[in-house]
Amino acid sequence: MSYAAITGWGACMPPAVLSNDDLSTFLDTSDEWITTRTGMKERRVSHVSAIEMSTVASQRALACAGLDPADVDLVIYGGTSNDELCPNSSSGVQLALGATNAAAMDLNTACTSFCYGLATATAMIRTGMIRNAVVIGVELISRYMDWSNRNVAVLFGDGAAAVVLQATEAEEGVVGSVLGCDVEARETLRVRGFGCAYAGQGITFGDTLWDFDGQVIFKRAVRAMSEASTRVLAERGVKADDVGLVVPHQANLRIIESVAQHAGIPMEKVIVTVQKYGNMSAATVPVALVEALETGRVQPGSWVLMPAFGGGLTYCSLLVKWGTRVTPLGKSDAALPPCEKTALEMVNVIRAGQDPHGRSLKGLMAPTLVEARLAK
Ligand code: ACO
């Protein structure tokens, strides 16, 4: 059986920066609260669609791998933010890339979508179904954030990154994976107003209410990512000391520090981007991976650990054996169009479009497990 090497990587960060001070112009919050509770200082707000961000990231990853788009076998679009549900987003990226011979699959496990996509594409390559894949992690959360809710509005950001996987005989790429879902906590994170359950209730797209139990998510995230990491290392017989770099999901600096402590890995071996990008859900791990590669933090032949968790509450930890190459084969000149507005101006436009019916969402019914049980 062959392996699936990571041969290309590229990120696409929208340029507009939303600072903590920007948030406190319309929310009862402060730079001090956000910084001390989350480690976040700023995040990005995109002026383009999720498909456009994904396309630029993928073009950069393909140039890095030296792979022609026409030779791509599969595009996986990992994320919760879709420009449209039909046609799917991966086909939009496929079209923009000119990857005319590829299959195209959207994969949504919330924040773990990129890592689940990486595990899926690796399995497909290892069994010989496909020879290569582009795997994307992307989010455009600004468009459906409830900007009136300080519990969530300060936490998230937009962004995208992609990797290219290619079949190889060398033992590299994802060589260990633990995937799971802490389903008892399914109700702790829900975006109301977003999906078929809300049809016919007079909701404007983007007008959402978030159910979010931050403290429960925090504890379960630490436990799930720590246990998954310990298991995947044990299964491969790799010691914590031998891990070269941890590329974790970036939801909160305190979560990252706790997971590193539980795994027995010092913070010097952990890449942290949460201070400048916030929680980009599915995009956090690949964006951090690209940054690690571009700043020389991935050593040839090293072990890279990727723990993540997200809505569901899905969780995982992937163990990657890096190959010999840590530099790009080529460089793409793909870029986003210039952004004419500030991040705050864009957020204010979205806020003005939300809540056209005086917060009619509050009466919304989305049958949840808990509600269904209570109704019996
Ligand atoms: N600004 C100011 N005050 C705030 C804000 C804000 N933005 N948000 C909440 N508060 C207040 C609360 O109302 C509360 O006030 P009270 O004491 O008067 O009731 C106080 O701050 C403390 O709130 P806590 O919830 O106790 O704060 P905590 O230290 O737990 O931090 C946080 C909250 C940052 C959300 C944390 O629990 C966390 O990071 N949880 C996990 C978040 C997470 O994982 N998010 C991602 C979801 S999963 C995924 O990645 C898709």
What's the short version?
The protein has 376 residues and is α/β, with parallel strands linked by helices. It has twelve helices and 13 strands. The strands form four sheets. A five-stranded mixed beta sheet has the order 1-7-6-4-5, with helices on both faces. A four-stranded mixed beta sheet has the order 8-13-12-11, with helices on both faces. Strands 2-3 form a two-stranded antiparallel sheet.
Topology of helices and strands:
Elements: E1 3-12, E2 16-19, H1 20-23, H2 31-38, E3 42-45, H3 50-65, E4 74-78, H4 89-97, E5 103-107, H5 113-126, E6 132-139, H6 150-153, E7 159-168, E8 173-181, E9 189-192, E10 209-212, H7 214-236, E11 243-246, H8 253-263, H9 274-277, H10 284-294, E12 303-310, E13 314-321, H11 343-353, H12 369-375
The site of acetyl coenzyme *A has 23 residues, from helix 2, helix 6 and helix 7.
